[in-house]
Amino acid sequence: MSGSAPAHRPVLAVKGLTVPLPSGADRPFAVEDVSFEILPGEIVCVVGESGSGKSVSSFSIMGLLDPALRPSRGEIRFGDRDLLRLPDKELRALRGRAMSMIFQEPKTALSPTMTVGRQIEEPLRIHLRMTAAQRRARMRELLRLVNLPDPDKLARRYPHQLSGGQRQRVMIAMALALEPALLIADEPTTALDVTTQAQILAEIKQIQRRTNTAVLFVTHDFGVVADIADRVVVMQKGRIVEQGPVAAVLTAPTHDYTRSLMAAIPGVHNRTERAAPEQAPVILQLDGLSKTYPPSGFAFRQTAHRALDNVNLVVRRGETLAVVGESGSGKSTMARCVSGLIPATAGSIEIDGRPIDAIGAGERARLLQFVFQDPNRSLDPRWTVGKSLSEGLRNLGVPRKQALDRASELMAKVGLGAAAVDRYPHEFSGGQRQRLCIARAISMEPRLLIADEAVSALDVSVQAQILKLLATLQKELQLSMIFVTHDLRVAVQISDRIAVMHQGQVVEIGPALEIFRNPQHAYSRRLFEALPGRGLSA
Q1: Cα(492)–Cα(513) distance, integer angstroms
Q2: Backbone phi and psi for residue 416, each to the nearest 5 degrees, phi listed first
């Protein structure tokens, strides 16, 4: 947690902000009567579920709201100016120079057609009279500031040639280029692994302290809140229900909604103990599994890359194995090799005692199913959910009516109601769409379910619902699960055992509680020590 802020005039004061929603929405306002302020050198975290108004509030400040949304009441005072009443030209002059924003997804926020060096130089070119040499020098200084190696080489790369953590650092460098008085960070670490997240948070705090910048940090991760916030603003359905110093809100929340969010934080306290499956039959066995990618021809990978290196694992009937590690550790590659989405280079995969290559596609679909991270890309937007859920059964020759009846049963099983089978994916929330993907996966009654970051993009309360659903289904169906995640709290809550991967190898594996509380390998210790707000998970 950062130090307490000095008593100064607020950098930002939001007073009574109200933004109506279009007619037909499920509530009249996106945000209603929202008021808070941020002092120089202070970090204020805004938390709440999806749809609580967090991002609408931050986009209102920057003047980046969708044209369909327009504030109807209130003030947003930045210094002595009301941003809601500034002409567009004056507001554009403030963006980047006096206030800037780090967006959640740098892959979409950065232009794919420009080198990252040019993109960092862009605000310098627009707002300052600097020579090309001065801009390049400042760009290299900013890349060093956010701990990116070899600035000259990295500046010539394009966003797709960088890792997720590197792209996020580039976004931070752009946001800080002109040392703004206000920095808004909208879920900037949601998709990052725990060590990269810790590095990004440390860099934001370090730079904020050095420049005395006021920071508005939007997040659904209470671990992040515990580590960096001075004050917390809790939002629900467009309204602020609680705000105050971070210690007070996290240790003694006064509002029922805040208490429910705190109770939903994954971790040991939400763990459901199950009978140990040590003597159960083996459903999956990996022996010497390896995967090597050939050189790509691009400058960023001119040599072969060994993504998996001699991985040996077993998963037993009814067991959940969580696989954790940093981005690039081989977690998803291993999951995709097991599922047959990509071929392994060496080693063997056996399911139910048989080599996977000897099992036909239809039978394999009944043995193993996959739940992907992003349900928006997993469901066909042109199909009703009933058609999506019944597709696998139809492919195996099940009559249409019987398959649709089964789809209705599955909808009820995942808590969505059988009547919703004729709706389309866009008519469901993100959490509901993930439930649909789970329903589709279990429609085949598989022995093994592989979930690859299946809850990483969900807010804490929806995440808790999905984890509870998976635990219930596993018990009912005696499913085995491989649960790939970068969230160590989720891993210890849902798994029987945890496997830690590093540079394509399993460096440690053991009972979940033992790995979480007393990791033995140096890499495992570094991984768990980087967990933000670790005390919240105990």
Answers
A1: 6
A2: -110, -15
Write down the pLDDT at residue 177: 86
- Say if residues 453 and 374 touch (Cβ distance below 8 Å): no
How far apart are alpha carbons 186 and 268 in whole angstroms? 28
CA distance 155 to 119: 9
Report the pLDDT value the prediction gives residue 267, as an integer from 0 to 100: 86
Of 201, 230, 183, which is closest to residue 6 (Cα–Cα)? 230
Place of tokens 């960070």: 185
Per DSSP, the three-state class of 341 is: coil
The CA-atom distances, in angstroms, between 338 and each of 105, 212, 378, 449 are: 29, 50, 19, 11
Whole-angstrom distance, CA of residue 274 vs CA of residue 279: 14
> CA-CA distance, 49 to 65, in Å (whole number)?
19
More confident residue, 104 or 122: 122
CA distance 438 to 97: 45
Across the chain, what does the average pLDDT equal? 88
Cβ of 529: how many Cβ atoms within 10 Å? 12
Start-end of H helices in 42-115: 54-62, 88-94, 106-109
How far is residue 187's CA from residue 104's CA, in Å, rounded to a whole number? 5
Structure confidence at residue 297 (pLDDT):
52
Sheet holding 305-316, edge to edge: 305-316, 282-293, 346-351, 354-355
Q: For residue 273, give the DSSP letter.
A: P
pLDDT of residue 377: 81
User: What's at 260, amino acid-wise?
Assistant: S
Residues 511 and 502 sit within 8 Å (Cβ to Cβ) = no
271: which DSSP letter?
Answer: P
Sort 248 into a burial class: Cβ within 10 Å, 0-12 / 13-18 / 19+.
Answer: middle
Is the Cβ–Cβ distance between 314 and 506 less than 8 Å? Answer: no
Cα-based distances in Å from 241 to 51, 58, 59, 380:
14, 17, 20, 37
Using DSSP, how many helices (H) and how many strands (E) does the chain show?
A: 21, 20
Contact at 8 Å (CB) between 364 and 448? no
- Hey, what amino acid is at 346? A
